[in-house]
Amino acid sequence: MTKPIAKVSDIIFVRFELRDLEAQCKYLDDFGMQAVQKDNGSMYYRGTGEDAYIYAAQKGEADAFIAAGYEVDTLEELQALAESQDVAIDDGDALMGGKMVRLTDPDGLGIEVYHGVNKLSPIDEGVPVLNSGKEKNRLNATQRFGSGADEWQLDGDGNMQYALPSSVMRLGHTAINVKDGPASIKWYHDVLGMIVSDNIIGPDGQVGGAFIRCDNGDTPSDHHTLNVVALPPEGEMFHGTFGHAGFELEKSLDDLMAGHFHMKTSGAYTHEWGIGRHLLGSQLYDYWRDPAGFILEHWTDGDLMTADVPPQDVSIVDVVKGQYGPIPYSSFNMSLPVAAVDEFREAIPSMTEMLVKGSEGQS
Ligand SMILES: [Fe+2]
Q1: SS3 assignment, position 99
Q2: Distance between CA atoms of 312 and 264, rounded to whole angstroms?
Q3: Is residue 126 part of a domain?
Q4: 33, part of any domain
């Protein structure tokens, strides 16, 4: 296998151009991130982790995904990327700091790679102690989240609202729709050093995509930092588009549930998929579409792997079926204006449903 030019150690943030920053700020407040800086032209949000920001957007004429930001451990790797891709090394912005390069992946999606970025003090909210049937770890103490039952409030119309949002900690991964799965897998390996956790085998028996992770040697990395999926020809208009960004929560399962009811009872947002438990990566997941039509995910309790775990081949059915949870809409991983979502779901049959039915028919 080709020796990679660099090895990214983790993903830091996603960057967008948006027409309505105010609506997005409200969404991210509800989604459970914390504003670092916002004005009429830009917005930056952090999680409870140490990254300077995990979501950034600038005001523009269109709603568009701009880039995903990654980090490398050494300046030499940044220099190697700059030389091999024939791009300049620039300074990071005032918040992120460090040095950075701008790359473009095989589908034209933006990538920013940083070294020496600023780190914030984490906001430690503590992790709840859970009792299971067999293991009783919390004794003589109650389980409370936020203000307990007072988190349920009546709004002006007499509807119950759940006030406590999730606590987003960090960005864990993105998913993108690509034209050529193997070409993307090769590029992300050769340029950014990412390695395959699971090759996704499509209905035609060929590799159609993969879950890929950072190669941090003996230090465990998330099962996937990037998910690439090649769509069938009928999905051609979505090649080279953003699928979703998955944000890890601070406090595990209850954080996911609280956030779900907060987003749901606000009545303001389009739910995309969940709650469920993925098979590939094992995360508990919940996906919500933002006002610009991009999908952001809450997740918790994912798998971690060292670099010596070899890749395996998995069926595309296992990507979408998971261990439990609802079948996703056909609109899952499709960046669509919110107003177009219902029509899309009605017009396009759920590929997942067909795949799951097909696989059950075969067995
Ligand atoms: Fe995800």
Answers
A1: strand
A2: 36
A3: no
A4: yes
Domain count, the chain: 1
- Band (pLDDT 50/70/90 cuts) for residue 363 is very low
- CATH number, domain containing residue 109: 3.10.180.10
Cα of 77 to ligand 1 centre, how many Å? 27
**What's the gap between Cα 53 and its chain centre?**
14
Confidence of residue 349 (pLDDT cuts 50, 70, 90): confident
Domain assignment present for 146: no
Å from CA of 58 to ligand 1 middle: 24
Residues, beta carbon < 5 Å, ion ligand 1: 246, 297
Percent of the chain whose predicted confidence (pLDDT) is above 70? 96
Report residue 145 CA to chain centroid gap: 25
Q: Is the pLDDT of residue 41 over 50?
A: yes
Cα of 172 to ligand 1 centre, how many Å? 8
Question: What is the Å distance from ligand 1's center to 49 Cα?
Answer: 19
Å from CA of 246 to ligand 1 middle: 5
Cα–Cα–Cα angle for 300, 224, 232, rounded to 5 degrees: 115
Measured between alpha carbons, how far apart are the two ends of the chain, in Å?
36
Measured in angstroms, how far is the CA atom of residue 347 from the centroid of ligand 1? 24
Burial tier of 216 (Cβ tally within 10 Å: 0-12, 13-18, 19+)? buried
In a domain, 186, yes or no: yes
Across 130-148, average pLDDT = 95
Q: How far, in Å, from the CA of 286 to the mean position of ligand 1?
A: 9
The predicted model scores a pTM of 0.96
Contact 187, 212 (CB under 8 A): no
53 lies in which domain range? 8-118+165-362
Give the CA distances from residue 163 to residues 7, 58, 149, 160, 291, in Å, rounded to whole numbers and listed in that order. 41, 28, 10, 9, 20
Model confidence pLDDT, tens digit, residues 58-73: 999 999 999 999 999 9
